[in-house]
Amino acid sequence: MSDDAPATLLDEALEAWAYTRRGLLAEAEVIPDDDYDWRPHPEARSVAEILRHILESGRMAHGELAREAGDFTRQGFEAHLQEYSEELPDDLFPDELRGHLETSLEEGLGVLSEAGELHMLGRIRRFDGVFGTRLAWLQHHVAHESHHRGQVALYARQLDIVPALTQKIEGS
Length: 172
Description:
The protein is mainly alpha-helical. It has a single domain (9-170), classed as Four Helix Bundle (Hemerythrin (Met), subunit A) (Up-down Bundle), CATH 1.20.120. Helix content is 63%, strand content 3%. The protein is built from seven helices and two strands. It has helices at 9-30, 47-66, 77-85, 94-115, 117-120, 134-158, 164-170, and strands at residues 123-125, 131-133. Helix 2 crosses helix 3, helix 2 packs parallel to helix 4 (94-115) and helix 2 (47-66) runs antiparallel to helix 6. The protein is globular and about 45 Å long. The two termini are 28 Å apart.
């Protein structure tokens, strides 16, 4: 995308996703690689597990949204994740996770941009069985990633690290 204001609703949604994903990556980069297995509670996801979850769910989201006959109920959630992430190794080092998150964002932006706005204004069945537009579901995914961006920033705080966005605001 260019430095100009987004021209379409799809451009706006893709810009929001790119902003959110890049913010998530910035938060992930302030956490030392040695702390990627850290979790605030035994039942909580680790930093690495959160990033893996975003990687897999993002690939599933852009894959299913771009798919001509996309339908989030055509198989179970875990089967969707497996379909779109089957070539990913089980164990990724922190730098590999961040690299895959960057690459999958660029792939997703390309695939959804190529699908076009008319396609994205079309309907898709969500996980709850209700139909909505693909564009609305993309916005749902952006919100999902934003939630986890905040989670990673909170983890940074719990590790006595100033989150990336706070550093940016404060000019650190």
